[in-house]
Amino acid sequence: MSPKNKTWLITGCSTGFGRELAKAVLAEGHQVAITARDPKQIESLAQGYEDRALVLTLDVTLSEQIAEAVRKTEKHFGGIDVLVNNAGIGYFAGVEESEEPEIRRMFEINFFGLAAMIHAVLPGMRARRSGHIVNISSIGGLTTFPSVVYYNASKFAVEGLSEGLAKEVAPLGIRVTLVEPSGFRTDWAGRSAKESPIEIEDYAETVGEFRRTMRQASGNQPGDPARAADAIIRAVEVEDSPLHLLLGNDAVQLAHEKLDSLRRDFKAWEEISIGADFPNDEA
Length: 283
Prior knowledge:
Belongs to the short-chain dehydrogenases/reductases (SDR) family. GO terms for molecular function: oxidoreductase activity. Keywords: Oxidoreductase. This is Oxidoreductase. The chain is an alpha/beta fold. The protein has a single domain, classed as NAD(P)-binding Rossmann-like Domain (Rossmann fold, 3-Layer(aba) Sandwich). The chain has nine helices and nine strands. The strands form two sheets. It has a seven-stranded parallel beta sheet, sandwiched between helices.
């Protein structure tokens, strides 16, 4: 292996970003632990790359599978250079329409499973004083949309964890990148996102309309997962890697709109905000 070759561990490789990223990373000459809850769905990814691909069973909500996947990867390849937390699901429902078991299941996968993976790889990365943690968030981790508010909340949590983690591990030679895509053809809306059977008429024009729009757009989104995979690899390979990596034209536009909205509120209420402090002579 050349010095540029790294060992990647990618979660959720059965479809979408995870699958395309595993293919691209292997094509670049890297070593990859390819994981999914059902390994039969990812065995084909390793064909022709048996010397550099390790297929593993991994459900990120099961601590014993997380520990085993990390242990096997480190033993097989000698360490983990890049962790990609890609496993995740969605849920369509207004806040009032949402079912608590579905909300908690989504947070277990999108947030707590991601956090558990980070806990598992950090000891090895700390020991080597190098590593890169890539967390697949969403433009929905920066701004919100009706009918996916709890999904947004799970991604907002990922954003907060990642930003704080980046500050903690930077002195140890470990980098963190948040990937924030807009609509990509990953079948997220059509396959992995459940939908509440509860529909409240008062939310028809907000929640209901957005539910239908997202479902109808599935398979026709402008984002190309293969191009997204290439962008992620480039972000990992550069020395000055970004903390925030927006993917897709819509993501860029929506992120700027969110910044403009924040600036408007901050500026309009600046005097009152500052006035909430004790006066300088009383501080």
